[in-house]
Amino acid sequence: MDIVQQYMLDSYRAARLGEAPPPPPGSHDREVLRGIRGRIRAWAAAQRPPLA
Asked: Is-above-0.85 flag for pTM?
């Protein structure tokens, strides 16, 4: 099952149960990539040797 099929199934289930539909696929990609970049930068800063 691909992501679009899963989204359609989740939307159908939410509609039947009267719940809010899930966010569309890819709607949070930018936030996730920014978070990953921030964690990499923090890790790199922590791995630097101390200045003498």
From this structure: no
